[in-house]
Amino acid sequence: MIRVLFADDHEMVRIGVSSYLNAQSDIEIIGEAEDGLQAYELALQLRPDIILMDLVMKEMDGIESTRKIIQDWPEAKIIIVTSFLDDEKVYPALEAGASSYMLKTSKAVEIARAIRETYRGQSVLEPEVTGKMMQRMRQPDRSALHDELTAREMEILLLMAQGKSNQEMADELFIALKTVKVHVSNILGKLEVHDRTQAVIYAFKNDLIHEK
């Protein structure tokens, strides 16, 4: 079972989404929080596999809660589920350490899919979020850390930016899955980021999407 903590300050939202998710054979809601502070405390107490995090909440907002959770528990996997798509919400949430970013307009089945994929180590971004990243985050930094990447690591980083899973990258490059995982780990270390989502942000921000 994928153990999920759900943080949202609207009870009806929690009831609706939780009812659908609890009906899934592989997902279980193990806790609910109505504000960011409670989400932070429950996350460290329950250690869920996935945290669904709203952004605008009392006591502590979702961005600060995400930042504090990642600071104290770097392995946490957080999916932002919000109504906001503006830059001052999207980028800080991802930079704080969120693995995925979904909108509340998404269907429940899409949120369930995001939970499963994030649990497997992938990043799920709403198409609108990806579009905004491509438009707004292309600010090249040629003194950047990607100069340390090998040709193969750069190739894998670009495939990650295209949303490819580890298995898809292995199939496309005709290399072993274990080899892909080693390269991904090396990429995260060289770019000084914690996860694939932040690596993808780095790729867009430094305009690497055009470097073939």
TrEMBL record:
Segments forming domain HTH luxR-type: 142-207
Primary subcellular site in the record, as a coarse category: cytoplasm
Subcellular location as annotated: Cytoplasm
GO BP annotation list: phosphorelay signal transduction system; regulation of DNA-templated transcription
An example Gene Ontology CC term for this record: cytoplasm
Response regulatory domain segment(s): 3-119
UniProt superkingdom: Bacteria
InterPro entries: CheY-like_superfamily (IPR011006), NreC/VraR/RcsB-like_REC (IPR058245), Sig_transdc_resp-reg_C-effctor (IPR016032), Sig_transdc_resp-reg_receiver (IPR001789), Tscrpt_reg_LuxR_C (IPR000792), WalR-like (IPR039420)
Entry's Gene Ontology molecular function annotations: DNA binding
Gene3D superfamilies, per the entry: 3.40.50.2300
Protein name: Response regulator
